[in-house]
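Lab channel / #folding
Pinned by the channel admin:
"Please post every new chain as: sequence first, then the structure tokens as a reply. Keep commentary short and put observations after the output so the thread stays searchable."

First post following the new format, from NK:
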Amino acid sequence: MIEKLTRLLKRWLPLPVYPYKSYMIRKQCIFIHIPKNAGTSVLKAFGYRGYRLHAKWFDYNESNPYLFERYHKFAIVRAPLARLYSAYNYVIKGGNQSEGDRALQQQVLSNARTFTEFVDKILTPEFVLFQPLFQPQSYYIFDSQYQCKVDTILRYESLNHDWRKLCILKGWTIELPWLNKGASTLPEALSPQQLEKIQCLYKVDYELLGYRFNE
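Reply from TO:
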């Protein structure tokens, strides 16, 4: 009885319960914020100034499957190598200066002085698995059967264009500011072995998101 009542309340009284945010209820959308993919700009555009959360598709679905089914779901993806370098730069600057980000900064800087050393010494399957900033993007928007769980994928490389198309589709008149735009151009050449390592670690992203490895 209680479980049935809870389902009805979620259906008829939509509330911004984790991981849903108030703007999602207002706009009837779900933005899945993949780290280092211009998510802060989207939150700013929607007027959200709270804590940034990087919830995956199943977090929304488990919290309120009724809203998850009915709201328009979208995410921004990015070329995996460029995103990796952006995440690395974010980490060595201390991230958002939280205790966890500063600990990760210390871990990286104490073992690697450059991005190439980071790739050689720190970037391992275990590191990628346990560090949300470095997890494959596909983990956020694909299920275990490799089915995409969002309605619209926007690309970082053509974000202004893709954002305008989404706004037209949804009837929004929302400008997208560019905030926290991190570096994406590599300052040093990677060896064939390092490139192969990155390609293997992010193979699922290259395949599911449609990026070529030279992008």
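NK: The chain is about 50% helix and 5% strand.
TO: also worth noting, The first strand starts at residue 29 and ends at 32.
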